[in-house]
Design a protein that fits this description.
single chain, rod-shaped, mainly alpha
């Protein structure tokens, strides 16, 4: 159960990282004057991916603490 939680968090971090990379490429391409709407959307998506990554990192930390607590109980 805890391992599954950690794996899910790691997958979420990977998805967020990939999303950040896509948003960064889109921001870099949106340097034309008419591309302001694309840049705005990409910036918002970049921030969303950042928040998702932080949430998944916290989830991974909780899974790690839970696993440590279980090991302490078993020892």
């Amino acid at each position: 159960m805890i391992g599954k939680l950690g794996n899910t968090a790691l997958q979420g971090i990977q998805r967020s990282t990939q999303g950040m990379a896509r948003s960064a490429v889109e921001i870099a391409r949106a340097s034309q004057p008419g591309d302001q709407q694309n840049m705005t959307r990409a910036l918002v998506e970049l921030k969303q991916h950042e928040h998702a990554a932080k949430a998944n990192i916290k989830t991974l930390a909780v899974a790690d603490r839970l696993l440590g607590s279980l090991l302490d109980v078993k020892a």
